[in-house]
Structure formats: structure tokens, C-alpha cells
Specification:
The protein has helices at residues 87-103, 111-124, 131-145, 192-203, 216-233, 242-250, and strands spanning 2-15, 19-26, 30-36, 55-61, 69-78, 166-168, 188-190. By secondary structure, it is an alpha+beta fold. The longest helix is centred in the C-terminal third of the chain and has 18 residues, at 216-233. α1 (87-103) packs across α6 (242-250). The protein is 34% helix and 21% strand. Bound molecules: zinc ion. Zinc ion (ZN) is lined by residues 155, 157-158, 160, 176-177, 179-180.
């Protein structure tokens, strides 16, 4: 059966002498794996098409349950070329596609997630929009879409509101208040302001959350909280390669 899909390239792998295996996130079928035969040969029309983060239209032969479908033709919808000029934005875009690749497994459509992905990449490619905020919006809404919405309103033990912030232990996703938390070396403290920002982002739709007033220390704690929370709920994200570069940027 011939199928058509609109998709974002998540990753590619060279295969044989001239072929590639491409993992995509598509609007129609969710995560999709295609083999593109001969695509690395100089004569191929699709040569150079499959760069991670690119937005494409693809036509492929599909066989239900095959795992690997066969690419037939494709064209570029959006290359998000604004990313290429900015190392920070390019790094964040790479984290986004790797995070999504490791968070979803099967070919199940999730159009809201596809919309979140394309909106985020196009906002990230726009130098007029702040990059870290755009990223946080993606990460928090990805968690929400996957059923892992962080609960940052109350202490997980005594249920008191976390107005003065909360702490997260080393192997936990929950936040505890100042009175309940037994401070350990690896606890992450997240201020009340940061928790308020997380709630604001989760409550907003359409990707708009710009220039949040957070100190460097608060930004760092937001990054640390997000990743510890994500590693806890989605184990396959622990070995993400793009995180090494991200850590150099945001510590
Ligand atoms: Zn408490």
C-alpha cells in the first residue's frame, strides 16, 4: 500500500553502501521507520533530504507490522534554516528530536504531539523568540501529552502548598516542602518562583511564554528538575547523547 505522511526527521543511520534508515515522527502514524535505498548515491533525488529536525512530506510503501517501511519519494516542507546559524538553538533542536525519539515507541498517531513538535521547531528557528523558554514549553507539554504532567503545586508528603519552593531527592520525581524534605547531597531545590513558572507554562497553549524573569540559579534549577523528573519517568532518556552538549550550555 502506498502511504503519504507529513513528518519530522528524528534521526538517520547509514545502511549498506548507499542507503539510510530514517526515523521520523509523522502526523498520520506517529513514529515511523523507513529504509531509503540508494539515497546516498550522487544520482539520488532525495540526497541530502534527511537531516534531523527537517519537516518533510514523504511517500512510502507500507506493510502493516513490518517495522521498517520503504521510502519512495519526499520533499522538503520546512528546513528551519534559522537554526543553522545559532549553536544554542541547533543544540536545543537536537535535544528535542532525540527526546521525542526516546519517549515514543510505536506507530501510534498523536497529532497534538506532532503539532507541538513543528510549532516548537519553527519558534526555535526564529531569532526573535527566546530559545530556552521555547524549549521549556516543549519539554513540559511533551510530559503532559505523555501522561507525566509534573505536579508542582503541593508537597508530595504533607500536601501543603509549595509557595516557598520544594526539593527533589536523587531518585525521585516528587517535590517535598522545606519541613518534610530530608536534605541530601543530591537534592535539587526549586524556588517558588520557578514552580510558578512551570505552572504558567503548563497552563498556556500555543507555545507562547517569553522572557520569564528567572535568575541564572533559578534557570539552572529548572533544567535540573526537568531532567531528573524525565529520567525518572522515561528511563530510555537517560543515555541521551545530545544532553552532553546541552550541559555545556546550561550547566
Ligand atoms: Zn511537606
Amino acid at each position: 500500500m502506498i502511504e503519504k505522511a507529513e513528518a519530522i526527521v528524528l534521526k538517520t543511520l547509514n545502511y549498506g553502501d548507499t542507503s539510510k534508515i530514517i526515523t521520523l515522527y509523522s502526523k498520520e502514524s506517529g513514529r515511523l521507520k523507513l529504509i531509503a535505498k540508494g539515497v546516498r548515491s550522487p544520482k539520488s533525488k532525495a540526497r541530502g533530504l534527511f537531516q534531523p529536525t527537517r519537516h518533510l512530506q514523504v511517500i512510502y510503501y507500507s506493510k502493516p507490522g513490518a517495522g521498517l517501511q520503504i521510502f519512495k519519494a519526499g520533499e522538503l516542507i520546512n528546513g528551519f534554516f534559522g537554526l543553522g546559524n545559532d549553536f544554542d538553538r541547533l543544540t536545543l533542536a537536537q535535544v528535542i528530536v532525540e527526546l521525542l525519539d526516546r519517549s515514543v515507541e510505536d506507530e501510534a498517531p498523536h497529532p497534538e504531539l506532532f503539532q507541538l513538535l513543528t510549532t516548537t521547531l519553527s519558534r526555535l528557528a526564529d531569532p526573535g523568540i527566546t530559545a530556552a523558554e521555547t524549549y521549556w514549553f516543549f519539554h513540559l507539554h511533551l510530559l503532559r501529552e505523555l501522561g507525566f504532567r509534573p505536579h508542582v503545586e503541593h508537597c508530595s508528603l504533607c500536601r501543603n502548598p509549595l509557595n516557598d519552593g520544594g526539593s527533589q531527592g536523587i531518585s525521585s520525581s516528587h517535590l517535598e516542602c522545606v519541613n518534610c524534605h530530608q536534605s541530601g547531597q543530591d537534592s535539587i531545590f526549586v524556588s517558588g518562583t520557578v514552580l510558578q513558572v512551570i505552572q504558567t507554562i503548563l497552563a498556556s497553549r500555543g507555545g507562547r511564554c517569553e522572557n520569564l524573569e528567572l535568575s541564572v540559579k533559578e534557570r539552572r534549577s529548572l533544567w535540573a528538575f526537568l531532567w531528573r523528573y524525565t529520567f525518572y519517568h522515561i528511563e530510555s532518556t537517560r543515555g541521551m547523547r545530545s544532553l552532553k552538549v546541552l550541559r555545556q550550555l546550561y550547566g
